[in-house]
Amino acid sequence: MKLTEHLATAKDTIISFEILPPTKGKGIESIFSHLDLLMEFNPAFINVTYHRAEQVYKKRPDNSFERVEIRKRPGTVGICAALMHRYKIEAIPHIICGGFSKEETENALIDLNFLGVRNILALRGDAAANEKFFTPHPAGHRYAEDLVKQVINLNNGQYLEDDIMDGGKTDFCIGVAGYPEKHYESPNMDTDIYYLKKKIEYGAHYVTTQMFFRNEHYYNYVNRCREHGVDVPIIPGLKPLTTKRQMTMIPSIFNVEVPVELYDEMMKAKNEKDCEKIGEDWLLEQCKDLLKNKAPILHFYTLGKPHVIYNVLKRLL
Ligand code: FAD
């Protein structure tokens, strides 16, 4: 079922999770053990992130270096198929522009369509580790809006090759990313929302947000999007902060605020367990408030901490 259909018919709060593929070499069991715990809460969807290949330098026996391309977390499409098979659930693969030609993207979409995947999240992706700014693949897309256009073309049976007549139509429901505290490259919030609106005008059906730790950021963002005419569902992305290190790391990577009350509490924590409990309590309060304010879905970034999300949901529902 498409996410938008689910939203239109659901009676209770919808729960969904995002997971990362395991690092290369690890088995699918690490994903299953992570998710088995959370299935008690009947998630409607599980998002699976996509990770671009990175250029790394490897030392040769003669001490010279060679540049090789390595994808540390492959397997998004395979994991989606495995989740759909094991849990009879909708999997939402993330599709990124970075590192992909349009042709490779089209082929990936064809694979997903054949597998019965009905939802995708269309993203630009970040700059490669060796780049300061995002550089598109020479035959790929610069912005997520171009990727949205490609998926919509496929939904209309238009393939990259002009001579494919009467091409089979896909029927993907398309999500895109939104940033309650603004995307780090954007000069201001209005410009960011202007480009978000473009993604919707080109055909995207809903927005999933970057994590935030103050609900006011999400509420203000939704209001501002509505003022700009963005009228699709805006799904809040939620993550527990569970270590002192994250207090500085998360804002620097994701351009999000860590509220001073949370920061102060965390700094007083004596051990790891205390930190997790503080993050859990904070997230629980966020969730209660979001439910009170009728957020359409609670979407959790599980990122290796399924037990924290489990505790939050057990106390919440
Ligand atoms: P875009 O919508 O293309 O926007 C990028 C920037 O360009 C913004 O500042 C925007 O305002 C601006 N912009 C957009 N269109 C134009 C235009 N036409 N002209 C000028 N400026 C423009 N990354 C991954 O690699 N893999 C993942 O699985 C992944 N999952 C994510 C899931 C969520 C929910 C979120 C919020 C992010 C995720 N990311 C992921 C990170 C994301 O790829 C980065 O934040 C990336 O920097 C921007 O992606 P985007 O799709 O928002 O890009």
Net shape: globular
Strand content: 15-25%
Number of strands: 10
The DSSP helix count reads 11
Spatial strand sequence of the major β-sheet = 1-2-5-6-7-8-9-10
Give the distinct bound molecules. Answer: flavin-adenine dinucleotide
CATH architecture: Alpha-Beta Barrel
Within the CATH hierarchy, at the fold level, what is the topology? TIM Barrel
In short:
This protein has helices spanning 3-9, 29-38, 76-87, 102-115, 144-155, 189-201, 215-227, 246-254, 260-268, 272-292, 306-316, and strands at residues 14-19, 45-48, 54-59, 65-70, 90-96, 119-123, 173-178, 206-211, 234-238, 297-301. With 317 residues, the chain is of the alpha/beta class.
Q: Secondary-structure blueprint of this entry?
A:
Elements: H1 3-9, E1 14-19, H2 29-38, E2 45-48, E3 54-59, E4 65-70, H3 76-87, E5 90-96, H4 102-115, E6 119-123, H5 144-155, E7 173-178, H6 189-201, E8 206-211, H7 215-227, E9 234-238, H8 246-254, H9 260-268, H10 272-292, E10 297-301, H11 306-316
Helix pairs in contact: 2-11, 5-6, 9-10, 10-11
What does this structure look like?
The protein is an alpha/beta fold. The chain has a single domain, classed as TIM Barrel (Alpha-Beta Barrel). Strand 8, helix 7 and strand 9 form a beta-alpha-beta unit. Helix 2 packs parallel to helix 11, helix 9 packs antiparallel against helix 10 and helix 10 crosses helix 11. The chain is globular and about 60 Å long. The model has no long low-confidence stretch (mean pLDDT 96). The structure holds flavin-adenine dinucleotide. The site of flavin-adenine dinucleotide (FAD) has 22 residues, from strand 5, strand 6, helix 5, helix 6 and strand 8.
